[in-house]
Design goal:
The structure holds two protein chains of two kinds. Chain A is mainly alpha-helical. Chain A is about 75% helix and about 0% strand. In chain A, helix 4 packs parallel to helix 11, helix 5 runs antiparallel to helix 7 and helix 7 packs antiparallel against helix 12. Chain A starts with a helix and ends with a helix. The chains are: A mainly alpha, B alpha/beta.
């Protein structure tokens, strides 16, 4: 039981970001790094204690997940978005079988790290990771548009990107119950809706005449290419898992 | 001032939008032509937003390519500098335009702000000058052209605009539908607003104006702002507004006659949906809005800035975190002024030798940024003008007696083919104003409706029917089969049950066309052409009918209907005399001495309109058929005089219309003859040739001093602009000897077409060989079957000898004109101004604005277009009606293919002649306001003038 509650915390099942946001002890950027780190710790702990999680923990994570979904809908900041999405997916990380949970978690973290890096790029180019005024990037900054599209498509659980394959693989190998159905449905559509909402306001739309657009620097492109390669590897792993 | 007057005062801000089936090129800023070009563009920019000139980068590239000559840029730059007493800084101004201006926006960078100190004096100066200190004015400027629901959306993050505009479009598209749908809206004959009352179940007794008044009161729109609010609403969907404006002003537009609409009706529809969606809104009238603004000024400004995309990420973050809005606003203002200061400081650093304070430099830069668009444009135009004038005034004479003279219907696309025809043998060419000066309502063979073949501003008064002159049984039989096939297919499609089976049963048949057209367009085209009925040989009804003939035709029409009704509906058979008696009774109320049921009489009168009134109407209509002999003579005389062809006629005078061929192209009529109402101009040329070949007409022309020898033949032709082929018609009138000569000429013309295609193919993308040009005419996925009028830049009115030697690559309209035969009122030149020049200006400015800002003045990409209501195209499944030209018509791979310049209008004539023509012309306003660039080549005075800044200035002295 104690392990379950530790995992609830580590797997972002409790929206502790509210504390950091209120107190401003940590900036948005750091909150993501911290939560990502804790999720990795959670994966380690979970692999050490592979057992079925108690329903109460899942219910708490699920309720917190709704809250994060609401927060994700409210924000236009890519840093915030990356940790809200992580918290939103917490019930899955807790509920899935250990191996599947770890695989899905890694894939999710890689995707969100890509989004986090896009936030960095936004901050460098436009003064903040907030994308609200920076629409239509595909037309004016094609590299940034391409990578953001890739990350958001992955996040939206589109096959053949790894999140979808690993998510699908995980739900196939988990025992079902009412809570399972509810959580899977909410998180599946939630991921899709969040990603589409961001996509509509960033990669699509017409460019803002008030903004001076700057594309990804060559170094950044290489970094994003590496993340993309990693996603490809995870896709292959996901496919392999699915077929086995 | 009534509401209608207020609406009328602002409606001309949007131009007419003609239905796409008869695409009319037009100046999208027609409503600003009462202003000088430069001022008009500033005002239009304030109204529509967007750009009115190309970006500096574009002009700088042309400067480096040598298209913009440095001397012209320097000369033009001097004018505003002199006015501001800054002429000593000309060299720095040029450096600013060439080097600093392209980077202007990138000098406002947050990164640089961190590492640069801001000059306090400059900061204070810019702060005092800015609008930020005047909150009310700032809010007013931010809310300009915003409706109440848009402001609401901006303040509260709602999406009412989406819902309202969608509903408005859905209703008006259904109401204005011209038979695209099979399920038409009911009761449209009641008019747009009355139908709308039924549609939305509105309980309102009065007309649309009283309803608008009521809603405006509910919105509490201040009386002084009503005009402005109307404009705001018109601008929301200005394509639709332009179309409704057009149809409400064209009383002869048939759909308007049967389904009337007005801009006031449209306004009522818009306001109704606004009211409907805003009722539950937090702010649903202007009083509440003003109170809200008063209590939440910083928040309102920030939200408005945010909705316009003017808040950068940092402020958006702060807004998201609900920090103190006054603090956020103060920080924003401070940053904005810091960025403005930084921009000035960094720009000044790039001009180290410039002896100016930062404040002086700020004003200097402001002046140059304000003027640069116009300066670049004028310099580009001036560079072309000097090049063209040199070419026009270099001596060239052509003595050889030509075998044929071909009069081309005016179009830039005839320039290459004319050159090639002249090079191919003893042939000369002329250019004559589109529609060849003969406006006709043309009823094509086997068609029921008349096409107005004349510019949109002219309403033709004469009807010409195309009638067969040979037996056409094969045509009838093939036509019958096609008609039956189409009817069966439509019935099956529209039936609620049959589509379920139909798709499986016959769906594959459509696959033949689908795959054939995609993968084997040529073969498929041939196959389908074989199945098409071939039109028989035809002639035109050019002579007026006599009163007896008219009466005979009406009687025949009426008695046929009566007979049909009697035999099918009452089993009564009457002989010819009895039918006549019944007809006389119905038309002239004469006594009826035969027994017919009163029901049938009533039916004939009311359902079939066999009445005295219809008799008069038919008489009037048939009275419009054909031309009187004087009219016929006048049209030929006008044409020949206008182009200066009054003596030494060639053996063959070819009058060539033009048309384009393409597939799956809603914009096809934009490629046809603009002066013929967006149709092909072959009927005009055939009509003129038939008239000119008449002995009677030639005799009368001789009396007027135009002696056309009896052996001269006028032959009509059509120039297909997509393939540069010239096809001749009505050659049966040639005898054997003439035919031999003509055949040789035909071969030369084919050679000319071949060479014209060779030249043109070089400029078209994905065209490697001549065959590709033909495939483009039948390829249904081809968004650019030809470049059309893209690239147009000017018009030349003068003798052909002055321009025959210059290859203009389809960029100039070449109108033949001989000022020596013009009269003292300059009637000929005035006619050129009134027709071709007006159309030329519309074409030119439509291309100009579609290129400089395709989002606002153009139609966007064809890829997203869907035809709506058969009147135009819109994006996806609802959007504004797309005005202007699609990107594929003016851009190539995202870059401008069309070079936007004003119409360079060269006139080879004495200055006085031109001045009189301008004075008498309907084009006076836009000529004097410089929406075109008039250049007068006065060879008698040995001077070339340009009309600039309200005066004629000499730009070249001739030797």
């Amino acid at each position: 039981m104690l392990i379950d509650f530790i995992l609830l915390f580590l797997f972002a099942g409790v929206p502790y970001y509210v504390f950091f946001e209120k107190t401003k002890i940590l900036g948005k950027e750091k909150i993501f790094l911290l939560s990502a780190f804790l999720v990795i710790c959670g994966m380690i702990v979970s692999s050490m204690f592979p057992q079925e999680r108690c329903t109460l923990v899942i219910v708490v994570a699920f309720l917190a997940s709704w809250f994060s979904l609401y927060k994700a809908k409210q924000t236009t900041n890519l840093y915030k978005l990356s940790y809200y999405v992580l918290f939103f997916n917490a019930p899955m990380l807790i509920m899935f079988e250990t191996k599947e949970s770890i695989l899905y978690g890694i894939s999710l973290l890689v995707t969100l790290f890509g989004i986090y890096l896009m936030g960095k790029y936004y901050e460098r180019s436009y003064g903040s990771a907030n994308y609200r005024s920076v629409s239509g990037i595909t037309l004016v900054t094609p590299y940034a548009g391409l990578f953001l599209t890739l990350y958001l498509t992955t996040l939206a659980l589109y096959p053949p990107f790894p999140n979808s394959l690993l998510f699908f693989n995980a739900i196939l190998s988990t025992d079902t119950n009412s809570l399972w159905y509810l959580s899977v449905a909410v998180i599946f559509f939630g991921n899709f809706l969040i990603a589409m909402r961001v996509m509509a306001k960033t990669v699509f739309g017409k460019p803002n005449d008030n903004v001076h657009y700057i594309d990804l620097a060559p170094k950044e492109r290489w970094l994003h290419l590496a993340i993309f390669a990693l996603l490809l590897v995870l896709s292959a792993a996901g496919l392999k898992e699915l077929l086995s | 001032m009534s509401l209608l007057e207020k609406l009328n005062a602002v409606k001309d801000t949007v131009p007419h939008y003609w239905p796409i089936g008869a695409f009319i090129h037009h100046n999208p800023l027609k409503g600003f032509e009462h202003l000088n070009f430069k001022e008009g563009l500033i005002k239009a920019q304030n109204t529509f937003g967007g750009k009115v000139y190309m970006d500096p980068d574009y002009y700088i590239a042309l400067y480096h390519k040598g298209k913009v000559k440095p001397e012209h840029l320097e000369k033009n730059l001097l004018r505003p500098l002199e006015e501001a007493k800054l002429e000593n800084y000309a060299s720095s101004a040029k450096t600013f335009m060439l080097e600093i201006s392209p980077q202007w926006n990138s000098l406002r960078s947050y990164e640089d702000l961190k590492i640069n100190d801001i000059d306090e004096e400059l900061h204070t100066y810019l702060e005092e000058k800015s609008i930020y200190l005047h909150k009310e004015a700032w809010i007013e400027s931010l809310t300009e052209h915003m409706t109440l629901y848009e402001i609401h959306d901006a303040l509260f993050g709602t999406s009412e605009k989406e819902l309202i505009e969608k509903d408005v479009i859905e209703y008006i598209a259904r109401f204005l539908d011209e038979a695209q749908t099979t399920l038409s809206m009911a009761d449209r004959d009641l008019g747009m607003f009355n139908t709308f009352k039924l549609y939305e179940d509105i309980d309102h007794e009065g007309d649309s104006e009283s309803y608008v008044e009521k809603v405006l009161e509910e919105f509490k729109v201040p009386k002084k702002d009503i005009e402005k609010y109307f404009l705001t609403h018109i601008l929301k969907l200005h394509g639709w507004a332009g179309f409704i404006k057009y149809r409400s002003e064209d009383k002869e537009y048939y759909p308007q006659q049967v389904h009337p609409s007005s801009l006031m009706d449209y306004m009522a529809v818009r306001l109704h949906f606004g009211l409907k969606y805003m009722q539950e809104g937090e702010i649903n009238d202007f009083d509440k809005l003003h109170a809200y603004i008063k209590n939440n000024t910083p928040y309102t400004i920030l939200k408005l800035l945010q909705s316009k995309g003017k808040l950068t990420g940092t402020y958006n973050d702060a807004m998201e975190e609900h920090q103190d809005y006054q603090e956020i606003l103060d920080a924003y203002v401070k940053d904005e002024i810091n960025l403005d200061s930084l921009q000035i400081q960094l720009a000044k650093k790039s001009l180290p030798s410039l002896d100016m304070t930062l404040i002086e430099f700020a004003n200097f830069a402001e002046l140059l940024k304000k003027e640069e668009g116009f300066l670049w444009l004028k310099s580009l135009e001036d560079s072309y003008i000097s090049e063209h004038v040199d070419a026009f005034t270099s001596p060239h004479t052509y003595e050889e007696k030509p075998l044929s003279s071909t009069i081309f219907c005016l179009d830039v696309r005839s320039e290459t083919i004319r050159r090639k025809v002249e090079e191919s043998g003893p042939y000369e060419t002329y250019g004559a104003g589109g529609f060849l000066g003969i406006p006709i309502n043309f009823v094509e063979f086997d068609k029921a409706h008349a096409l107005a073949l004349a510019p949109a501003v002219i309403k033709p008064k004469n009807i010409v029917f195309e009638i067969p002159v040979e037996v056409h049984e094969e045509y009838n039989s093939k036509k019958g089969i096609t008609k039956t096939y189409k009817k069966v297919l439509t019935d099956l499609k529209n039936n609620p049950y049959t589509p379920y089976i139909m798709v499986e049963a016959i769906g594959w048949m459509f696959g033949i066309k689908l795959f054939g057209k995609t993968f084997f367009p040529e073969k498929t085209e041939k196959l389908f052409n074989k199945m098409k009925p071939k039109k028989p040989k035809t002639t035109y009804t050019l002579d007026k009918l006599t009163i007896q003939e008219i009466e005979k035709y009406i009687r025949r029409l009426h008695t046929n209907i009566i007979n049909e009704v009697l035999t099918t509906q009452s089993d009564t058979v009457l002989n010819k005399d009895e039918l006549f008696i019944l007809w006389e009774h119905l038309i002239f109320n004469k006594d009826l001495c035969i027994k017919i049921s009163p029901d049938i009489i009533n039916k004939l009168k009311h359902a079939y309109h066999i009445t005295g009134m219809d008799y008069t109407l038919q008489k009037e209509k048939l009275g419009q058929v054909g031309f009187t002999i004087d009219e016929q003579v006048m049209y030929v005389e006008n044409l020949l005089n206008m182009i200066g062809m009054v003596k030494d006629f060639s053996k063959f005078v070819i009058i060539s219309g033009h048309g384009s061929v393409s597939d799956n192209n809603p914009f096809e009529s934009a490629l046809d003859c603009g002066a013929c109402g967006g149709s092909i101009s072959l009927p005009n040329s055939r009509a003129l040739c038939m008239i000119a070949n008449k002995e009677e007409v030639r005799e009368k022309l001789k009396e007027k001093g135009i002696d056309i020898p009896a052996d001269v033949r006028f032959i009509p032709a059509i120039h297909t602009t997509t393939t540069d082929e010239i096809t001749f018609h009505d050659t049966e009138l040639l005898n054997q000897e003439e035919l031999e000569l003509f055949s040789k000429m035909e071969l030369d013309f084919k050679k000319a077409s071949f060479e014209a295609r060779e030249e043109r193919a070089l400029d078209l993308p994905n065209t490697n060989e001549q065959k590709d040009l033909f495939i483009k005419t039948m390829d249904w996925s081809e968004p650019r079957p030809e470049w059309g009028l893209a690239g147009n830049m000017g018009v030349f009115a003068g003798p052909r000898d002055s321009c025959r030697h210059i290859p203009f690559k389809n960029r100039l309209f070449m109108h033949s004109y001989d000022s020596t035969i013009d009269n003292e009122n300059s009637d000929l030149l005035t006619r050129i101004f009134d027709g071709p020049l007006v159309v030329g200006e519309w074409i030119n400015l439509e291309h100009y604005f579609s290129t400089v800002d395709n989002k606002i003045y153009g139609a966007g990409s064809k890829v997203y277009h869907n035809v709506v209501s058969k009147i135009g195209v819109y994006n996806g499944n609802y959007s504004d009606l797309k005005i202007g030209l699609p990107t594929q018509s003016v851009l190539l791979e995202g870059e401008a293919y069309h070079e936007p310049v004003r119409l360079l209008t060269y006139m080879e004539a004495p200055l006085d002649t031109v001045a009189k023509a301008v004075e008498n012309s309907i084009a006076k306003e836009f000529i004097l306001n410089e929406w075109i660039r008039p250049i007068i080549i006065d060879k008698a005075a040995k001077k070339v003038y340009s009309y600039e800044f309200g005066e004629f200035i000499v730009i070249k002295e001739l030797a």
